[in-house]
Amino acid sequence: MFNNFRPNQLQGAKITLYHLKKCPDSVAIQLMLAHLQLPYKDEAIRKEDWPLVREEILTKRVPALRIERPNGELTWINESKGIVRCIGAAYDLLGKDEMEKYYVDRMIGKIMETVKPLGLFYLRKRTTTDLEEAKKKLFEDLTPLLKMIDKMLEEVPGACAASTNITIADFYLLPFVDFLLANKPDCLQPYPEMMAWRKHLLEVDQGVAKFVAGQTLTIV
């Protein structure tokens, strides 16, 4: 791990991101690197290849970031949230003051709460004969959280997820919102703040917009 990590430590570095294919934890990292316009090699690993590839990765866990600096010094960082916060701190993406940091943590925490209804959906999907009914139940279960996220965006003093400026909260919220849109295109109509937030983010961040345009979204 870097000590007193600084942006110049990535200048000229060869960056490789190792992650399992379709792993949601890696998307926030990819969005952050796209926002910072840092070139990197994306190594998406198939589950069946993991036992072999694992031996090549020092951390033995993914997502993992391999950073080789011009002087040959090699650094590995693993754990998705650790990677995002380590690099995010260096580039002032965690919030410029305590109130913004609160908004960042609050938004990420609320997004993490969606794991339970999503997990229940995938359990139902394994046994149900009516997938459409299972999807309907998923969006019903998500409705209280969507209402809270929309309200939180309204309370933030800015057009981004936690500030007037882009923070790591935007990189966590965007994959969730795009997953919803891929599976129910009209799902954001009751949530004007989310619709406005997404439109603003893609307008002001060309790196993120380009990354999103090149993604294949998960359809359940």
From TrEMBL:
<comment type="function">
    <text>Conjugation of reduced glutathione to a wide number of exogenous and endogenous hydrophobic electrophiles.</text>
</comment>
<comment type="similarity">
    <text>Belongs to the GST superfamily. Mu family.</text>
</comment>
<protein>
    <submittedName>
        <fullName>Glutathione S-transferase class-mu isozyme</fullName>
    </submittedName>
</protein>
<dbReference type="InterPro" id="IPR050213">
    <property type="entry name" value="GST_superfamily"/>
</dbReference>
<dbReference type="GO" id="GO:0006749">
    <property type="term" value="P:glutathione metabolic process"/>
</dbReference>
<dbReference type="InterPro" id="IPR010987">
    <property type="entry name" value="Glutathione-S-Trfase_C-like"/>
</dbReference>
<feature type="domain" description="GST N-terminal">
    <location>
        <begin position="13"/>
        <end position="95"/>
    </location>
</feature>
<dbReference type="Pfam" id="PF00043">
    <property type="entry name" value="GST_C"/>
</dbReference>
<dbReference type="InterPro" id="IPR036282">
    <property type="entry name" value="Glutathione-S-Trfase_C_sf"/>
</dbReference>
<dbReference type="InterPro" id="IPR004045">
    <property type="entry name" value="Glutathione_S-Trfase_N"/>
</dbReference>
<dbReference type="InterPro" id="IPR036249">
    <property type="entry name" value="Thioredoxin-like_sf"/>
</dbReference>
<comment type="function">
    <text>GST isoenzymes appear to play a central role in the parasite detoxification system. Other functions are also suspected including a role in increasing the solubility of haematin in the parasite gut.</text>
</comment>
<keyword id="KW-0808">Transferase</keyword>
<comment type="subunit">
    <text>Homodimer.</text>
</comment>
<dbReference type="InterPro" id="IPR040079">
    <property type="entry name" value="Glutathione_S-Trfase"/>
</dbReference>
<dbReference type="GO" id="GO:0004364">
    <property type="term" value="F:glutathione transferase activity"/>
</dbReference>
<feature type="domain" description="GST C-terminal">
    <location>
        <begin position="97"/>
        <end position="220"/>
    </location>
</feature>
<dbReference type="InterPro" id="IPR004046">
    <property type="entry name" value="GST_C"/>
</dbReference>
